[in-house]
Amino acid sequence: MEIFPQIIISGASGMVGQALQSHFVAQGIPCSTLVRHTAQPGSSAYFWDPYHFEFREGMRRLSGIRAAIHLSGDNLTAGRWTVAKKQRIRQSRVQTTRSLVELLSHLEHRPEVLLCASAVGFYGNRRDEVLTEDSSSGDGFLPEVCREWEAAAHSAADLGIRVVHLRFGVVLARDGGALAKMLPVFRMGLGGNLGSGHQWMSWISLPDVMQIFEFCMNRQDLRGPVNVVANPVTNAEFTLTLAHHLHRLAIAPAPAFALRLAFGEMADAALLSSTRAIPARLLQAGFVFQHPTLLDALQQILPA
Fold this sequence. Notes:
Layout: E1 7-10, H1 15-26, E2 31-35, E3 45-47, E4 67-70, H2 83-105, E5 113-119, E6 130-131, H3 141-154, E7 162-168, E8 170-172, H4 177-187, E9 200-201, E10 203-205, H5 206-218, E11 224-228, E12 233-234, H6 235-245, H7 256-263, H8 265-271, E13 276-277, H9 280-285, H10 294-301
Helix pairs in contact: 2-3, 6-10, 7-8
């Protein structure tokens, strides 16, 4: 007997997407994915090309799904931001979101909710300002992309779908993302501040991300932007806490000029930018973090 999915995920090949699939499978919740390669017969995947979208008859089996989750997006920190790279960053977020909303528009019974990734990059470089979901958008390339991204997702509201914009901070996990890239350097005792270290970092543990997805799916009063972050720390505090947890020194800072020389515009927008976002809506809704502090998260992710 065919088991129809309750949840569909696009962008499922990334760290968060893979973890989500495992999370739902462990709970016995049928979950399918949208993939850009030919799906194997009998698999739970559906082929789609979000850049040249065409609704396929087999997609009608998605009618009646409970939730759609959209995670697509080109890696921001993989290399310098050339004109072509910035175009990929924008299109991989905005165009794919538009295509997913178009797919959902064809379904006879549409999902109750669309959970669409966004980022705290929406706020831009705000120094020490405390940022909630009601804070304005910032200036520059990343805030502009986030505004377009969220606008594309919000069009699903016209279909009667509840839309949640998940503004992610840095997701901390052992085997992927930013932390996995930092670990070899810090374990050699070569970690250090990025620039002055005064910039604020908004972070979240991967286990808390899983719970936030489930929480936002089940809370029908949650819609619009939700900051997927815990308690922000400065880059200097992050560096010191990680080094101390690993029983290492952190004595090799990366000067701002060197980061700019190596990475150009991306250095200022992603590595040196200060975003002090707090999870105001999650806390107001009663969400309880497993890892409310950075040390809590590191102790779970990197047990001694």
